[in-house]
Amino acid sequence: MYFAKGLFFRTAVTRIPFPSSSNSNRSPARTPSRPDEIRRMIQQVRSEFGGLDIFVSNARTEAPTFYEAPMEISLEKWDTAVDSQAKAFLVAVREAAPLLSDGGRIVAITFAPGGRFGSWQPWVAMGAAKAAMESLVRYFAVALAGRGITVNSISPGWVEDSVLNSLPEAFQTGLREWQERGWTPMRRLGTPADIGNAVALICSPEAAWITGQLIEADGGASLVDAHVPLEFQGLEKTQEKHAKSKGA
Question: Which residues constitute the domain of residue 91?
Answer without folding.
Answer: 2-247
